[in-house]
Amino acid sequence: MTDWLGPAEWQAVRLSLWVAFVATLFSLPLAVAAAMALARGQFWGRQALNGLVHLPLILPPVVTGYLLLLAFGRRGPLGGFLEETFGLVFAFRWTGAALAAGVMAFPLMVRAIRLAVEAVDPKLEEAAATLGASRVQVFLTVTLPLILPGILAGAILAFAKAMGEFGATITFVSNIPGETQTLPSAIYAFLQVPGGDAAAWRLVIVSIVIAMGALVASEVMARRVGHRVAGR
Hints:
Strand content: under 5%
Distance between the termini: 39 Å
Number of helices: 10
Structural class: mainly alpha
Order of helices and strands: HHHHHHHHHH
Shape: globular
Largest sheet: none
């Protein structure tokens, strides 16, 4: 692939893979918690949480990116605090690209995990609780193994979504080669210059291969884990 892709193209592919991996890794624990709360929780503001989780799917990506810029930019309340306290900068950095990708992929991950949680029979968890298991033990020994296929499927789909994120990313962190230029941004940049069609097509092919590979891997891994959980 390094011979087929040019240096700038390969750089965009590597950055996209890294950004998608970081976005998925840090989003996963929050997605599991949100899915559990939405599937099993009964609390005031549950519908508001559900709307907030799915908001990135409804809003135009550019709006999401602009809101991230307002909140996590260097002059934003969260961005300023994180930079002064931890030295963490999001605006116009690859970290911001990971944040934008994670936010846009988060609803897909939560939805997949929530469906898996809702498919678990609550009586199994109740039985473990009556035997003296704490909530944490019930989750780790009963719930988590049963929802693992959903977690894997959601994580892989989120990874694929993060790889293809464009609107929120380019609004939040711009299109800086080597820093924030991911696959979609690189394709857009190549299409803006004369003679860039060939490079754009190569990156389009790479994007299709990665997306299809992620979908197939999601199905295969979910089935394998499901068979192991079922003892087959």
